[in-house]
Amino acid sequence: MKTNLFLFSLVFSFISLSAEIVPHQLFCDHAVLQRDTEVPVWGTADPGDEITVTIAGQTHETQVKGDGRWQVELSPIPAGGPYVLAISDGTTLVQVADILFGEVWLCSGQSNMEWLLRGNVIPMINAEAEAARATDPRFRYFHVTRKVSHVPQHSLEGTWVRCNPESAMGFGGVAFFFGRYLLENLDVPIGIINSSWGGTAAESWTRREVLKEFPELAEGVARSEVLSRVKDFDGFLEAQFAEWYELKDPGSRGATWSIRDLHTSDWEPITLPEAWENAGHPDFDGVAWFRKHFDLPSGLVGNDPSLLRLGVLDYYDTVWVNGILVGSGEGISARREYAIPGGMLKEKGNVVAVRILDGGNLGGFRDKEAPLDIVRERDMAVLADLKGEWKCQFTYEMETGEKLPPNILNSPHQMGALYNGMITPLLPYAMRGVAWYQGESNARRAKRYRDLFPAMIADWRAQWGIGDFPFLYVQIAPYVNQLPEIREAQLMTLERSPNTAMVVTTDVGNPNDIHPLNKGPVGERLGLAARALAYGEAIEYSGPIYSGWEVAGDKAIVSFDHTGGALVVPGGRLRGFTMAGADGVFHPAEAVIEGKTVVVTAGEVKEPRAVRYGWSNTPEVNLFNDRGLPASPFRTDVD
């Protein structure tokens, strides 16, 4: 026993000492560092300590600053490894194992970049087979855990994972295919950092100081600045919700409907548990109150704590017992259980009051299988079965398009909130470039995106301080609710942002699914663009891009860049072209390839004034170059 205690003491001592030197989370076992360039390595330690960093025959020394941070710059190291990264303050030694030098890329954006190879619901096309051949451990992946912040963060959560058939299924699909393509074509270690969040707009990923250049964003930017100074987040959020309820909901004003003694004879009966949209209130979004009176069996009343079990509530709930608040929650992923202190329940005349706010789901008590009762905490004996008839009152119906009260502190939709939480912690990690798949959430604000997206790109480059690194991005795929203007804004970014490339996806989308499952070509086309922009290969990496047009009588002659060896039409005649004359009415047009141009005519148009290609939410188009890359939709009449 003495030996065990002694060993325990040694281990505890080592842990305590080693905790004084903490490399940044990106520098953990299996990390990939950027080859052939200076590589910052940083972390924290006790202020004033002398830190020595050793790897691959290099040794670098620095002193910890007063804020506890330290950083060194590694000299360029070629592709290879594995190495051990050793960090010491003269007393404590921290070692990070299995470090490789290769190519590092940051993948970011919204759900189509976040979507896993195995699929959040349905696996991607050929996922199992593709993962099965992912056996090269030189391909590694770091998933940045979701984080909202109103001030810049320096730390993050995540680990480097070596790729194998099992781990690959947890990689983002686009990032997986992109990284594997690079591995196969470059034959060096590949590190992919995926920092993405579904449903988010570019404003969330852009630094707040950049957003100040957009007057229409002033209100959101000001709110974000206020939040950056909030200390009591819980109290602030509670006050925001209370203000919203008092404004919208009659039951939340003054003496609220949570009180024990409330006249409810005119309330509607409802049998619970049941979602309210399945119980006579279809399509209702808003606030509803539910109350249940109950007595306890004689002899069971005491001072024992108990537990109120309500199942899954949809979506925001606030719960009172005998007029006393016992809890609140949100979401449809967890069952609600709220503690009732001893002495709160009476033998007769108890009441549970539940206020629920829902803004788009089924609403209410949606978990029909879960217990709906009160149990004694020490032995789970049922004190009251609450299933059956309740009374309800629907108080406030939300207007079409109205937003829920904002969960502003934890919302990824606040200005700069993801830049602060998920991008700044990556700075200044050495990398080759960025692959970006985002825009769906900006589709209704496409004109702003024309300026916002290039501004975001420029600022990311400025913050990294490594020049105009390659920035590759995916044009939004055809989908019934995605307007063509967002693709146009992305197309315009090619001219406004140097060293960028755009992947067109008109041939691999799904008009009925915003998350098309054919992600292989997307990742591989990003890889093709990387070979050209980042690695200087003289290859065609883009589909045809509209470059200009001229009129010859009743014909429009359209020119393109990135035609490769030739323009081609798989499957016969060209589709997707329309043309308009002076009246501005667009008509379906005939289009034929002549050399590296397309000649467009329409019987109804004698004097062409504008030509469009693929100008719809779900374009049906088939113009390619001979490298198999599709042409981007465009219009000549850009407003």
Query: How many runs of DSSP E, i.e. beta strands?
Result: 36
SS field, number of helical segments: 11
Radius of gyration: 30 Å
Main sheet record: 11 strands, mixed
Q: Which consecutive residue ranges, at least 5 long each, have pLDDT under 50?
A: 1-19
Class by alpha and beta content: alpha+beta
Ends distance: 81 Å
Average pLDDT figure: 92
Helix content estimate: 10-25%
Anisotropy-based shape: globular
| Relative strand content | 25-35%
Describe the structure.
It is a single chain. The protein is built from eleven helices and 36 strands. By secondary structure, the chain is of the alpha+beta class. The strands form eight sheets. Strands 2, 4, 5, 7, 8, 9, 10, 11, 24, 25 and 26 form an eleven-stranded mixed sheet that branches. A hairpin with a 2-residue loop joins strand 4 (about 50-55) and strand 5. Helix 9 packs parallel to helix 10 (about 485-495). The protein is globular, with a radius of gyration of 30 Å. The termini are far apart. About 40% of the residues are buried.
Can you give keywords for this protein?
639 residues, alpha+beta, six-stranded antiparallel β-sheet, eleven-stranded mixed β-sheet, 11 helices, single chain
How is this structure best summarized?
The protein is of the alpha+beta class and 639 residues long. It is built from 11 helices and 36 strands. Strands 2, 4, 5, 7, 8, 9, 10, 11, 24, 25 and 26 form an 11-stranded mixed sheet that branches. A 6-stranded antiparallel sheet has the order 12-23-13-19-16-17, with no helix packed on it. The chain has a 4-stranded antiparallel sheet with strand order 18-14-21-22, with no helix packed on it.
